[in-house]
């Protein structure tokens, strides 16, 4: 079970890559906000299906106010991200939009250090420098 996080992380990466390519093809001639709403409806339906398939719906009553607040804020951030991402995909090149979008990795590491007090090591700093440098090289 210790390796399951890695399997799911790899699958997440594969599906994220497919998302970008499929979205770029699907958004052609479609308003980016409408495309985001359609995508969101599919994600919503799939998410609730998984909740019921796994029997997780009983946990709704156990969610406290703090959790609700942060889950709602996370949902708002996701929505804003998706709206901006689809607009960028619609008017830009995938090969330039995606590297910039993936700079979220760098921002997440910095925010995790600041707000979650996660360890910030030399290895993390070198990784951030490489990711940032790679992004700059890819978009120029």
Give average pLDDT, whole number. 94
The stretches of 5 or more residues where confidence is low (pLDDT under 50) are none
Rg from Cα? 18 Å
In total, the number of strands is: 0
Layout of secondary structure:
Blueprint: H1 4-26, H2 32-54, H3 65-91, H4 94-101, H5 104-115, H6 122-139
Helix pairs in contact: 2-3, 4-6
What does this structure look like?
It is a single chain. The longest helix has 27 residues, at 65-91. 6% of the residues are buried. Helix 4 (94-101) runs antiparallel to helix 6 (122-139). The protein has 2 domains: 4-92, no CATH class; 102-140. By secondary structure, the chain is mainly alpha-helical. It has helices spanning 4-26, 32-54, 65-91, 94-101, 104-115, 122-139.
Offer a few descriptive terms.
6 helices; 0% strand; single chain; 2 domains; 140 residues; mainly alpha
Could you provide a short overview of the structure?
This protein has 140 residues and is mainly α.
């Amino acid at each position: 079970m210790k390796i399951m996080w890695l399997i799911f992380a790899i699958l997440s990466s594969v599906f994220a890559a497919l998302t970008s390519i499929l979205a770029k093809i699907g958004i052609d001639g479609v308003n980016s906000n409408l495309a985001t709403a359609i995508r969101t409806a599919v994600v919503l339906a799939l998410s609730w299906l998984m909740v019921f398939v796994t029997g997780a719906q009983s946990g709704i009553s156990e969610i406290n106010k703090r959790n609700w607040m942060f889950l709602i804020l996370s949902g708002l951030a996701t929505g804003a991200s998706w709206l901006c991402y689809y607009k960028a995909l619609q008017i830009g090149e995938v090969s330039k939009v995606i590297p910039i979008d993936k700079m979220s990795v760098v921002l997440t590491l910095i925010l995790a250090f600041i707000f979650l007090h996660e360890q910030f090591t030399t290895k993390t700093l070198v990784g951030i420098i490489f990711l940032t440098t790679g992004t700059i090289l890819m978009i120029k």
